[in-house]
Amino acid sequence: MDDLESEFNLKVVLVSFKQCLNEKEEVLLEYYLAGWRGLVRFLNSLGTIFSFISKDVVTKLQIMDQLRSGPQQEHYSSLQAMVAYEVGNQLVDLERRSRHPDSGCRTVLRLHRALRWLQLFLEGVRTSPEDARTSALCTDSYNASLATYHPWIIRRAVTVAFCALPTRKVFLESMNVGSSQQAVEMLDEALPFIERVYNISQKLYAEHALLDLP
């Protein structure tokens, strides 16, 4: 079975993001991308609702796999090494996509933005009451993150699609770690790691003026 089609388990994502940072707090791309593969399985487990995001993420993962197995693979062990290499060698299109449309910096930036949406959404689910509407939580998280980068027609389509999300209890049980309460406890453990990785990545991109790459 394909890695991205196997059954989702939140614990696998937790382990990947736990391993994502080394002692220097560098973001290790092997584990970052592994965490994202787990999140893709999660999105796919919810049906076609999130296909607009999961398909794009899969494309981005394929680009990163090519860079990490290519002739310059030694520069793609960590996010920090990749940024230093690509920026230092002018391999990033800063103003418009031209010579380097699929740079590692641009590719990870798209994953980074999507990670913020998922982090906000899962945090909302974790802290919400039992009768909370997951569609509203998802829409609020989307509007606070990814919506900024999407045209109106996509924003409209995805917020309508979110209405098909299951109840909070069913949603939590889809994480395959037991009861809804056990899923909440696992999110308690997982989300701080995801947030830490996000914040370190955000700071790195801001320092190099890479947050608005075309």
Structural summary, described in words:
With 214 residues, the chain is mostly helical. The chain has a single domain (10-208), classed as Glycolipid transfer protein (Glycolipid transfer protein, GLTP), CATH 1.10.3520. Helices cover 62% and strands 0% of the residues. It has 9 helices and no strands. It has helices at residues 10-18, 29-45, 51-69, 79-88, 104-127, 134-143, 152-161, 168-173, 180-207. Helix 1 runs antiparallel to helix 2 (29-45). The longest helix has 28 residues, at 180-207. It is globular. The mean pLDDT is 91.
- Uncertain parts: none
| Structural class estimated from helices and strands | mainly alpha
Rg (CA only): 17 Å
The largest sheet, given as strand count, sense and whether it forms a barrel, is:
none
Shape assignment: globular
CATH class: Mainly Alpha
Percent of residues in helices comes to 55-70%
Per DSSP, the total helix count is 9
> Any idea how many domains?
1
Distance N terminus to C terminus?
35 Å
Portion in beta strands: under 5%
What's the rounded overall pLDDT mean? 91
What is the annotated CATH architecture? Orthogonal Bundle
| CATH H level, superfamily name | Glycolipid transfer protein
**What name does CATH use for the topology?**
Glycolipid transfer protein, GLTP
Strand segment tally? 0
Helix and strand element order: HHHHHHHHH
Family: Belongs to the GLTP family.
Catalytic activity: N-(9Z-octadecenoyl)-sphing-4-enine-1-phosphate(in) = N-(9Z-octadecenoyl)-sphing-4-enine-1-phosphate(out); N-(hexadecanoyl)-sphing-4-enine-1-phosphate(in) = N-(hexadecanoyl)-sphing-4-enine-1-phosphate(out)
Main location: membrane
Protein name: Ceramide-1-phosphate transfer protein
